[in-house]
Amino acid sequence: xxxxxxxxxxxxxxxxxxxxxxxxxxxxxxxxxxxxxxxxxxxxxxxxxxxxxxxxxxxxxxxxxxxxxxxxxxxxxxxxxxxxxxx
Length: 87
Fold this sequence. Notes:
Number of strands: 3
Number of helices: 4
Order of helices and strands: HHHHEEE
Helix content: 40-55%
Largest sheet: 3 strands, antiparallel
């Protein structure tokens, strides 16, 4: 059975240590996106595609060793992984 969009986003947030508002702003230009999904929002096809594209692009960059944001850029816990080496 395929996981729902919200389940995939929740797994992504855990993996990337990215706050929901940062994800929403970066993926679909809506900082309340994840909060609204948790509250029952049904996104349209375009929004789903944008969220999926953001997560796929992040995973692809991480696989090939490019820098990817991890955590929250607003705190000291924000760091990047380059070529598989943590700074």
